[in-house]
């Protein structure tokens, strides 16, 4: 299982820190100690992506550093909503036809 990364393109990702939420008050730039290490609550990404180190758990091929628009449809990695495993679509259909995938 991978930690999802902010897309840095959606509207919440592009906002400035609010300086008022619990996470902002903990940040050193707003006078906090920086123990929580969380982003501002108003900057919660609505379209998180998988990291470039993510790999298919069937064929073990990695996503690579290419952008989503440059990948062929069979190279795109998907995450199953039920089992939270990451697969290419062809690998997904071969092994996990009962699961539901999301991008």
Give the SSE layout.
Layout: H1 11-14, H2 22-26, E1 77-80, E2 86-88, H3 89-95, E3 101-102
Antiparallel strand pairs: 1-2, 1-3
Q: Which word captures the global form? A: elongated
How many domains? The number is 2
The helix content is 10-25%
First-residue to last-residue Cα separation: 14 Å
- Which structural class fits the helix and strand makeup? alpha+beta
Please report the number of helical segments: 3
Arithmetic mean of pLDDT: 78
Beta-strand content: 5-15%
Task: Report the major sheet.
Answer: 3 strands, antiparallel
Biggest sheet strand line-up: 2-1-3
Indicate the low-confidence ranges by residue numbers: none
By DSSP, the count of extended strands is: 3
Order of helices and strands: HHEEHE
Oligomer: single chain
Radius of gyration: 17 Å
């Amino acid at each position: 299982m991978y930690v999802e990364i902010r897309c840095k393109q959606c509207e919440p990702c592009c906002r400035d820190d609010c300086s008022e939420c619990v996470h902002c008050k903990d940040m050193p730039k707003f006078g906090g100690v920086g123990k929580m290490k969380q982003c501002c609550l108003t900057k919660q990404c609505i379209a998180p992506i998988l990291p470039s180190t993510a790999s298919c758990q069937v064929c073990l091929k990695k996503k690579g550093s290419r952008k989503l628009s440059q990948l062929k449809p069979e190279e795109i990695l998907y995450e199953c909503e039920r089992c939270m495993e990451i697969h290419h679509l062809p690998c997904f259909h071969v092994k996990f036809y009962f699961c539901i995938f999301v991008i």
